[in-house]
Structure formats: C-alpha cells, structure tokens
Design a protein that fits this description.
By secondary structure, the protein is an alpha/beta fold. It has 25 helices and 14 strands. It folds into three domains: 77 residues, Hemocyanin, N-terminal domain; 158 residues, Malic enzyme, N-terminal domain (Rossmann fold), CATH 3.40.50; 174 residues, NAD(P)-binding Rossmann-like Domain (Rossmann fold, 3-Layer(aba) Sandwich). 45% of the residues lie in helices and 10% in strands.
Length: 539
C-alpha cells in the first residue's frame, strides 16, 4: 500500500483504490484507525478471491454477475482486477462482450453509482473547465463513445457508457494500465432512439442527435480540451456511427495520439487471425481471397488493413483490392451501385450483380468475414458452399454480442465436417466433431488495443498510424503455439492475454522508436521497461 494516501477509518475503507477490507494487517488496522471497523480475522487476497468467486457463481444470470462485479470494483479496485487476471476466461465475458451489451441496454435500470465522465451538448465552451472536475490528473488513456453504434445494438445514447468503462477495465486487467491513468467518456449529443427518449428513467439528453457542424465543432473542442488537460493523452474512439467514425479518424489521426478501435483494432485482430489461418491451411497470405458480408466501419477497416498487408506482400493496390468482395444490404458493392459511402466505394468493382452464394462460386474466397450485426446470416447453404470451393475455409462471424453472431461455432464445424477454421467476436465453447476437439477463436479486440495502448504510452507516441496495427497483428499471430494450432485455434487462450499484451506493447513501441513516432529515447531493455510500467493489483 502507498504510504502517502493520508486516509484513515471509513474514508480508507470507502476508497476503492486503497481499500483492502479484511486483508488489512493488525499493524495497518492500528495505523489507519481501522480497529473495530472490520471483523477480527485477517484474511488474504487469495481468500477474498475464493469468497468472491463463490458468491459470483451463485448468481443466476450474467447481468446479475455484471452488477455484482461492478459493485466489487466500486469497493475494492485491486481485488477486482486481480480477480479478472486470475480468471480471464470466466470473467472477461461478464465485464465485456457479450454481457456488456445487455448492461448497456439496461444501463438506467442497473445504475447504482456515478462512473465515468459525461461531456454533453450543453457543455459547449466549457469542456476544458469541466475536465478539471475529474479527480485524477495524470490521465494517459481516454476511451470515448457517443453511443450511436453500440456493438450490434445500435443507438443507445448515454446508455453506451458501459463501453468506455468496459474497455478501460480491460486496459487495466490485460495490459496493466493503472486505473488512475484512465478516463471513460460518454459524448452525449442526444439520441435518435425513440424508445430511450420515451423511457422515464433514461439518464441521457432527450433530444435528437447533433449533426453536421454543431456535432463536429463540439468534438473539436473536446479533443483540444483533452490534450490540454492531459498532454500526450491517447484517445480511443469507440462505437461511433460509421460516417462519424471515419471522419474523426481522418481529422485527428495525424495531429494527435488517437485511434478508432472499431476500424483499426478490429481490423488488426482479424488480420492476426488471417495470418494464423495460413499456418493451418498452407495457403500463402499473398494468395488469399476474401468475401465480406457487411460494409460498415468495422468491415471497411478490416478491408483497408488487409489491402495494406497484401501490398506489403508485393501486390499493387488495385490487385490487392481486387481480392476483396463486399456485400451490403443491397447486394454486391459494384461501381454502378448508387449512394455507396466513401469508405466502402474503394472496394467497389465493375462486376455483374452476383448473389452472395453465386459470388462464392465465382470468387472462391478463402476467408469469409461477417460484420453485419444481424444473426444467422451465414446460413447452412453459405457455409457448405465455402466448403465446396476451399478445402479448409476460414469463417469470421464477428458481430457482437453472441446473439448477433452471423453463425455459431458448432454450426460451422458440423456443416463442414470439421474442416473449417472459425473465429467470432464473442466467445463460443469448444466443439467436438468426430472425436476431435475444435477450439473456436475469439477475435476479441482485447488481444490488440490494450497492448497497443501500453506500447504507445511507454514510448510517448506522437501518432498511431495503421503500420502500428499491422505490427500488432503480426505479433499476435506469432503468439500461437503448436497446441493452439492442433485445436484449429486462430488466437491464443484468453488467459494468456496479459503476456500477449506485453509482447504487442514491446513490438509496437520498438516500431515507434525505430520510425520516429515517439517523443522519447528508447531504453536499453524495452520489454523490461514496459513491464516495469504495468500496474500490479496486489496488496
């Protein structure tokens, strides 16, 4: 425990950063005036974790478990993060996807205490002033969302606060970013969700969403204020509508330290899975062909990243883009299709309007990528057609939460006789087919963004170009071992994520130092330096 916190008695017990509850020693109970305020038995963090897990497992629903864990974080921060670190597989799906989707939908109902920071349309001209209300002044990472496109659930307005809270929780648990260095922000500019506006307990602004100049000038003010209040801060944009997501990234990416996780983080984790798939299929990366269902910000970001990776393999830009077919709600994205968003138009081709299954026959993709937000869109016919054209097709069903996935892991393995490789955005259990165990890969952005954030903080990065995410993807793919590959896995086990984050942080910081993207000099031992910065939630 830090010796200079200056807290005693109930003030200490009510401070989540310093509270140890029953683990305060006899000497500490005297020093901090805790005698009589705690049961007499002195416990340990290990015993507390056992107690918490027993209580957690008694909860009947995942949303009850989410509420329980949220309350634990409010009482004892270190115990909360240690619990996650020692139980990644069980806890991460409860504090983030898929449970966080339900938590956002029910945010007003389950609201217990204030968390995070709200910047609203009413704060114009005062954002820098109100940032001083945040109690921590050494903020190094901000996750901000305007709640317009929460997972696959759409416009949830102020209820979207669950996303910045969850993402920053993963930064702490997966990459060792200290909680006091994080700031979750909900940028509340209204909502077009009539159900929320009519809900008497909704906690956000009851007005239509700001659009156009009124919206973008407010974001300008926020970005400028954040960089003034917290110099060198990394801003992660999260769950914005596609048009705004691309607009923010284009505007700020070259002038400050920022990235969009839906566009770049998702693309990087999918690219890592694609790299891993080549180790199983034997098909060289430069020869791969791709077909997309869905053409929003995530899909376009994945497409951009794949094209850059193919160019690095020696293809020219036109040839690389020719390897990718995109389908949106109206069908194949072609040169003649009207009203195609700019971020998708680059992938339009001068082709007949093939249907989706017909395109599989003609294009013969190795990789099928779903980013639709619509469940069950990868039908038996589609998956079996993929198995006809490729001996070991690779299926990415990326939509979150689990209820929105384009298909399930078991469906893919059974429809292909166990030949396919599979990854999803939300977790699926292992599947047994013909006596063989298949481990579905979870293309969870948590494999990428915590390590990238840690690395850029460690080197005091200036900007985060796509090259950083290409580097992170290669490093993530390289963490798979022979046991992972034997199970058909495209990603390492989730309980290895902290060591994976350290490897990625080391790789991207090294790249930044080597390519003039950092505002500091590299230490002799980069990995050791970064490890020394990682928050250890121990007593």
């Amino acid at each position: 425990m830090k010796k200079d916190h200056g807290l005693t008695g109930t003030d200490l017990l009510h401070n989540p950063a310093y509270n140890k509850s029953t683990a305060f020693t006899e000497e500490e109970r005297d020093r901090y005036r805790l005698r009589g305020l705690l049961p007499p038995a002195v416990g340990s963090m290990e015993m507390q974790i056992k107690r918490v897990l027993a209580n957690l497992r008694r909860k009947e629903s995942d949303i009850e478990k989410y509420i329980f864990l949220s309350a634990l974080q409010e009482r004892n921060e270190r115990l909360f993060f240690r619990l996650i670190m020692e139980n990644f597989r069980e806890i991460v799906p409860l504090v983030y996807t898929p449970t966080v989707g339900q938590a956002c939908k029910e945010f007003a109902n389950i609201f217990r205490s204030e968390k995070g920071f709200y910047v609203t349309a009413r704060d114009r001209g005062r954002i820098r002033e109100i940032l001083d209300n945040w109690p921590y002044h050494d903020v190094r990472i901000i996750v901000v969302s305007d709640g317009e496109r929460i997972l696959g659930l759409g416009d949830l307005g102020a209820n979207g606060m669950g996303i910045p809270l969850g993402k920053l929780g993963l930064y702490c648990a997966c990459a060792g970013i200290s909680p006091e260095h994080t700031l979750p922000v909900l940028f509340d500019v209204g909502t077009n969700n009539a159900e929320l506006v009519d809900d008497p307990i909704y906690l956000g602004l009851r007005q239509p969403r700001l659009r156009g100049e009124a919206y973008f000038s407010l974001m300008d003010e926020f970005v400028e204020a954040a960089n003034d209040a917290f110099p060198g801060v990394l801003i992660q944009f999260e769950d914005f509508g596609a048009d705004n997501a691309f607009a923010h990234l284009a505007k700020y990416r070259d002038s400050c330290l920022c990235f969009n996780d839906d566009i770049q983080g998702t693309a990087s984790v999918v690219l890592a899975g694609v790299h891993a798939s080549t180790r199983l299929s034997g098909v060289p990366f430069r020869n791969l062909r791709f077909q997309f269902l869905g053409a929003g910000s995530a899909a376009a970001g994945i497409g951009n990243m794949i094209v850059q990776a193919l160019i690095e393999e020696g293809l020219d830009a036109d040839e690389a883009r020719g390897r990718l077919l995109f389908f949106n709600r109206r069908g194949l994205v072609t040169s003649s299709m009207p009203d195609v968003p700019e971020h998708v138009r680059q992938f339009a081709h001068d082709l007949p309007g093939y249907g989706f299954i017909e395109a599989i026959d003609v294009h013969k993709p190795d990789i099928l990528i779903g980013a639709t937000g619509s469940p069950a869109t990868f039908t038996r016919e589609i998956i079996r057609k993929m198995a006809e054209v490729r001996p070991q097709p690779c299926i990415f069903a990326l939509s979150n939460p689990t209820s929105r996935a384009e298909c399930t892991a078991e469906e893919v393995y059974r429809w292909t006789g166990g030949r396919a490789l599979f990854a999803s955005g939300s977790p699926f259990d292992d599947v047994q087919i013909n006596g063989r165990t298949h481990r579905p890969g979870q293309g969870n952005n948590a494999y990428i963004f915590p390590g990238v954030g840690l690395g850029m903080i460690a080197c005091r990065g200036k900007t985060v170009p796509d090259a950083i995410f290409l580097e992170a993807a290669r490093e993530l793919a390289g963490t798979l071992d022979d046991d992972d590959l034997a199970l058909g896995a495209l990603y390492p086990r989730i309980d290895e994520i902290r060591s994976v984050s350290l490897r990625i942080a080391t790789a991207v910081a090294t790249y930044a130092w080597e390519h003039g993207l950092a505002d500091s000099d590299p230490p002799a031992d980069i990995e050791g330096h970064i490890r020394s910065l990682m928050y250890d939630p121990s007593y």
